[in-house]
Write a structure and sequence with these properties.
The protein is mainly α. The protein is built from eight helices and no strands. The longest helix is centred in the C-terminal third of the chain and has 36 residues, at 132-167.
Length: 210
């Protein structure tokens, strides 16, 4: 195993392994509160990472792998948003979260738009024969999509502390029977810095082409 392919192979094994418990959790959480949706998006993220890692084992500099890795950020962000919402359902009464459904709808549209722009722009960046004008246009689409993904991460970064703050007044009434909700909320919140690193890495990649 050579150094350039060592990491993609390791990631391939990791994400294949993680996909099975992710599916189990999706089934375990079920359809109540739409909880299964977030976990299925997380499974979609694992699937995209498996595909990207497989491509990178053949070509470490594959543009297709870079594109798929970037697209993979969209289900990861949506999954995190949906898991945060699921945690809020367990902890916070419905009357105290009247805007949750609207925020979820807005967030899904934001991330879907971001990845549509990135995919449309990057789909032919590795093709030869593009004019400088076409190249610039496609790079602009990709960069716009990545900026929207960054804004999506910033939105989650604001949403998670709000959820923690709102949970505190209801702790004595609900967390005694829904401790899992608080654990889920803390886990999703703690994952945000690591997701942010990945988003920033993709942003730098497409802005500097490195």
């Amino acid at each position: 195993m050579t150094a350039p392919t060592g990491l993609p192979v390791a990631l391939l094994v990791i994400y294949i392994t993680l996909s099975f418990p992710t599916l189990y959790i999706a089934v375990k959480h079920g359809l109540k509160h739409g909880a299964i949706i977030g976990w299925l998006f997380l499974f979609a993220f694992c699937t995209l990472r498996i595909i990207a890692s497989a491509l990178e084992t053949k070509d470490p500099n594959s543009a297709s792998a870079a594109l798929i890795a970037s697209i993979g950020l969209s289900p990861l962000l949506i999954a995190t948003c949906d898991v945060l919402h699921e945690a809020r359902v367990y902890i916070i009464p419905k009357s105290s979260r009247p805007l949750d459904a609207r925020f979820l709808g807005f967030y899904h549209v934001l991330i879907s738009t971001a990845i549509a722009l990135a995919a449309a722009g990057a789909s032919k960046l590795d093709k030869t024969g593009l004019t400088p004008k076409d190249m610039y246009r496609r790079q602009t689409l990709v960069r716009a999509g990545m900026v929207l993904l960054l804004l999506g991460w910033v939105a989650l970064l604001s949403f998670a502390p709000l959820a923690l703050f709102q949970a505190s007044p209801h702790e004595s009434k609900r967390l005694t029977t829904h401790t899992g909700g608080k654990q889920l909320l803390l886990a999703a919140t703690l994952s945000l810095p690591f997701i942010g690193i990945r988003v920033l890495e993709r942003l730098v990649y497409f802005f500097t082409n490195k």
